[in-house]
Amino acid sequence: QVQLVESGGGLVQPGGSVRLSCAASGTSFSIYNMGWYRQAPGQQRELVATITSAGSTIYVDSVQGRFIISRDNARKTVYLQMNSLKAEDTAVYYCHVNRLGGSWGQGTQVTVSS
Length: 114
What we know:
This protein has strands spanning 3-7, 10-12, 18-25, 34-39, 46-51, 57-59, 67-72, 77-82, 91-97, 108-112. By secondary structure, the chain is mainly β. A six-stranded mixed sheet has the order 2-10-9-4-5-6, with no helix packed on it. Strands 1-3-8-7 form a four-stranded antiparallel sheet, with no helix packed on it.
């Protein structure tokens, strides 16, 4: 099984940008579909973006045009570039292997506040 570690979160002002990283260990990373999810206080965990093994991407409407998901198979890392951040983007962000029984990372906090 793959293990995932997220990093890059922190405090950012509205309108700012942050890049999150999700580093994977184990084998077969290049064939996995991956996703970024987030969970705000008192809210359900929601899908933010997905990227397939072939590089196709999907975004939730609320982040379309602002966030970019990408992957570097050589480094076994998935990224989430977050631009034009809003207060409502504040959440713990998690990466996930999008398959049955897929692994979750531990999460990284992103706080958007002035």
